[in-house]
Amino acid sequence: MGDTVGDKPLEMMNEQAVAGKWSVMRSEINQLYTKLNELDQELNEHTLVINAIQPLDPARKCFRMIGGVLVERTVGEVLPAVQRNRDGLQEVITRLTEALEKKKKEFAEFEAKYKIKVRRGDEVMSRGEALKQGGASSSSSQGVLVGDASST
Asked: What positions belong to coiled-coil segments (predicted)?
């Protein structure tokens, strides 16, 4: 009987560790999505600038923000630098997209390995917990209470 009680906390700790790792993995994926969105916006801004200054005379005066300082240059000097930055951003986006796909695959394998099911509220629930609870989760659902309009 002591072994059964002794094993129970170990099993719970293991489930907690799995849930913690699942949460960390999901957070990493969300961070990659966020970073990719930021870089996509930056790439679009660079493309807009390139499209705006490309048809201009290369000797024309142009201003560029470098490290928070606005500096005067020519279109001929700025255009290649902005194009290099855009190309560098595209490379970073490609690498981050590959890393995201790898993380998503690892995440899916992790969920399959531990038979993780997600219910409302992004709570982790193992297959065993789902079977134990059955359909009794409806009592914990949230709702909205609306009063009669004439009572005010």
From this structure: 86-113
Does residue 108 contact residue 118 with C-beta atoms inside 8 Å? Answer: no
Q: What tokens were used for 86? A: 């855009």
Is the pTM higher than 0.85? The answer reads no
What per-residue confidence (pLDDT) applies to 12?
Answer: 52
What is the per-residue pLDDT for 56? Answer: 95
**Chain segment 73-90, per-residue pLDDT in tens:** 999 999 999 999 999 999
Instruction: At 114, give phi and psi (nearest 5°).
Output: -100, 5
Residue 152 lies in a domain: no
Reduced to 3 states (helix: H, G, I; strand: E, B; else coil), residue 135 is coil
Q: Which of 138, 135, 127, 119 is nearest to 15 (CA)?
A: 127
Q: Where are the alpha helices (DSSP H) in 54-152?
A: 75-113, 127-133
Number of domains in the chain: 1
* CATH number of the domain that residue 46 is part of: 1.10.287.370
